[in-house]
Design a protein that fits this description.
Layout lengths: L5 E7 L6 H10 L19 H12 L5 H17 L2 E8 L9 H22 L2 E9 L4 H14 L4 E7 L11 H9 L3 E6 L5 H11 L3 E4 L7 H9 L3 E4 L1 H7 L10 H6 L3 E4 L11 H12 L3 H14 L4 H12 L1
Parallel strand pairs: 1-2, 2-3, 3-4, 4-5, 5-6, 6-7, 7-8
Helix pairs in contact: 3-4, 5-6, 12-13
The chain binds hypoxanthine (HPA) and zinc ion.
């Protein structure tokens, strides 16, 4: 499973921070983060909202461009070791200098340099999807979208939104998504992870995404599944994340295969691997074990992911060759 060349579309940069990396920075900066770690070196949280709190606490000790560059390197080394050849990382100007344009450019330059080095040294290609955080509110999202529009190009290729799906409404963020789209960025948004099918439908109507982060609860609404097919919207499904957070009791109960059976385009990602004690290899092993996915199924999932990737066509062609090597 490890050696299958993989495309990952849903990976939060800060969510990929190894606990020991964050613990080291906290010690260095004399910030007491002891409450966010488990005894065996993982991250500790009770439920989804507490996960978001712990995520932000961990992120708070990452403070300069150089630290985000080191984090990018660590993330890409880990992904490459699991066969990932192309990854889209969610980058958050909120956590990189508070969505200030000048600071953001510096953070981005450092992360891009780290990504280019990883491409040279490890053969993994990364592109960035800028995300605003829903529970930080629509005004903050405007600042993030402005950073996104300003740095859109061949490296920053998309715009999206994570965070607490119950905060505000998708329509409250329409300005930010329109701003990003007008700058040429492709659109995705988290929906239907903790929110039900209605959350997905409202997001599609208000924000016009071509991909949805998670979207798994669409399975409860057959007409919505039809709409996803009709609009050719691809889901960034993160089965391990959903099971770890308790959206589904076990992988057996996860709707990934039922979505595929309905003709919905799905892809496989890790979301925040150390938070959910997962890797791309583990995701594939789980799917093989639970649903009998074989090499052919994984090739199909990776092709779907590559088709839905936000990169330019020369990059897509290059990655296509990597997938069939
Ligand atoms: N869901 C919503 N927001 C997030 C997540 C997630 O899984 N990870 C980081 N931000
Ligand atoms: Zn996510």
């Amino acid at each position: 499973m490890k050696d299958i060349p993989k495309v990952e579309l849903h990976l939060h940069l800060e969510g990929g921070a190894p606990p020991e990396f964050i613990r080291g920075l906290a010690l260095e900066k004399k910030v007491d983060l002891s409450g966010i770690f488990t005894d065996d070196g993982g991250y500790a949280y009770r439920d989804f909202l507490h996960f978001l709190e712990v995520y932000e606490a961990a992120t708070s000790v990452l403070t300069g461009p150089e630290e985000f560059a080191r984090l990018t390197t660590a993330l890409l080394e880990e992904s490459a070791s699991h066969g990932v050849v192309y990854t889209e990382a969610f980058l958050s100007p909120d956590f990189c200098g508070g969505a200030d344009m000048i600071a953001w450019r510096e953070y981005l330059a450092a992360m891009r340099e780290a990504a280019e080095a990883a491409e040279r040294d490890l053969g993994i290609t990364m592109r960035g999807v800028i995300t605003c955080v829903r529970h930080f509110g629509p005004d903050q999202a405007k600042a993030v979208a402005t950073c996104a529009a300003d740095t859109a190009g061949d490296f920053i290729v998309g715009f999206g939104m994570g965070g607490d799906e119950s905060a505000h409404t998708p329509a409250d963020f329409a300005w930010s998504f329109d701003c990003a789209r007008e700058a040429g960025l492709a659109i995705t948004t988290h929906a239907g992870e903790w929110g039900g099918a209605k959350s997905v439908r409202d997001s599609i109507e208000a924000l016009g995404p071509v991909r949805i982060g998670h979207g798994v609860q669409s399975i409860d609404d057959p007409a919505l599944c039809d709409l996803l097919v009709e609009r050719d919207i691809t889901l960034e499904v993160c089965p391990g994340s959903n099971v770890f957070l308790g959206v589904y009791k076990s992988l057996k109960d996860h709707p990934i295969q039922r979505l595929r059976d309905r003709g919905v385009k799905v892809t496989v990602s890790t979301d925040d691997p150390p938070f959910f004690r997962t890797t791309m290899t583990r995701e594939y092993e789980g799917l093989a074990h639970t649903f009998g996915y074989d090499e052919e199924t994984f090739a199909e999932l990776n092709q779907t992911a590559l088709d839905a990737a936000f990169c330019d066509e020369p990059t897509r062609d290059k990655i296509r060759k990597r997938l069939t090597q």
